[in-house]
């Protein structure tokens, strides 16, 4: 199937020298390459080489903090670690370094990268924890889950093969599930590998997340072990539990103080004044991403805005390969099955494109997502979109691939344009993102952690706009507060015993 019709690309702007240059060149190359879905890799590399002729391919280097380096060293020594810290302290960024280190130590195929949600898993090129484990919804007794996994040859093999297991966004995994997974790992590995029973069957465990962010979705509200840290095996699972302290996402001291308070469910009159100044009932400006607690509001706003533009709609249908259940998991990722765009759509780039991260954010290549300005679809039919970024730079966005990995094996893959409509996003979907300008309606906020997740996405106060803000919605779960008190208490005790600050 032809993706790129051999029509010449037309641009809607007249003053886009740079974009015109790229586009003209790309259009020519596509014309001559007769690109199809199958040949997109070469088309994409042509886009990249074409871009780098103009803007270079430099990736700004990020220096790891002493804490981050200490964690990497401990990983090299085989330690199992829980990494926590406020939003924007670089947990996921560090995980990327950890994953490459673990792959060197154990071999790529023996390192399994997972996360509690599809979106978080996709951003690490991993899979959801539940699908790695083969436990389905995971709502059965440990013995029943063990039999389920034992009957699932592939899942059983994964548990045997694993030398290291990475779990991101742990706040959304319950203690019940965490204990059950430990039981499965220990049972399968001691039986199959013929070794004495060890915790997690001897797998090196790297777990990351912030329990002040979104909690697990639990059907049985009476469940005793709501959070993973309440699991019986939690403390025994780690050699080290460490809280990252340096916040990178924000640099403004007032905003950092405000967010640190909200994280713990606290605020003072100064914080309320700051939040008050962010409140306004004025229609959000078009560069702001609107965050809503409920997906119905997100879909409604995006559909309304798309409709309002009254432009020709372009449909981009994802191309999926692989088998179920892996293929089904692609639906939980960030790349939509059907992407509808038109000229003027507000979009979000959902995949890190090296050349963009260096140029636009001037920071690192590791941002998981970027908020960007108006997109411009060029040409017609199946032509590729050209996006104008906040920096003013314009790029044609080619196809990207999202994989579901089983060790080093890709078991399913989705090809899609790495964009989603982004006038509005759900607070659940934005966990992990960094946004320049956000507008959030907190009227329908429910549960703990939601206000914190929404507000902590933003980089500076200029970019924070609120409606329906009610201080009573700022709340932290008392169990989580206790856990962190204990964590820092233990740290203080260790300090008195002469142990280093971080460990
Ligand atoms: N050592 C570092 N120096 C500079 N920037 C860093 C460093 N570590 C991480 N960052 C940057 O900090 C930002 C936030 O990182 P990241 O998204 O990993 O945070 P996080 O703790 O996972 O946040 P969240 O809890 O919201 O998911 C990213 O832009 C990342 O590139």
From TrEMBL:
Cofactor entry: Mg(2+)
For the biological process aspect of GO, one term held by this record is: DNA recombination
GO MF term set: 5'-3' DNA helicase activity; ATP binding; ATP hydrolysis activity
Tell me which EC number(s) this protein carries: 5.6.2.3
InterPro entries linked = DNA_helicase_pif1-like_DEAD, P-loop_NTPase, Pif1-like_2B_dom, PIF1_helicase
Q: Which Pfam families does the protein's record reference? A: PIF1, Pif1_2B_dom
Q: Where is the DNA helicase Pif1-like 2B domain?
A: 332-363
Alphabetized, the UniProt keywords read: ATP-binding, DNA damage, DNA recombination, DNA repair, DNA-binding, Helicase, Hydrolase, Isomerase, Nucleotide-binding
What are the residue boundaries of the DNA helicase Pif1-like DEAD-box helicase domain, all occurrences included?
Answer: 63-269
What catalytic activity does the UniProt entry give for this protein? Answer: ATP + H2O = ADP + phosphate + H(+)
Q: Which PANTHER family match?
A: ATP-DEPENDENT DNA HELICASE (PTHR47642)
Annotated family: Belongs to the helicase family.
- Supply the name of the protein: ATP-dependent DNA helicase
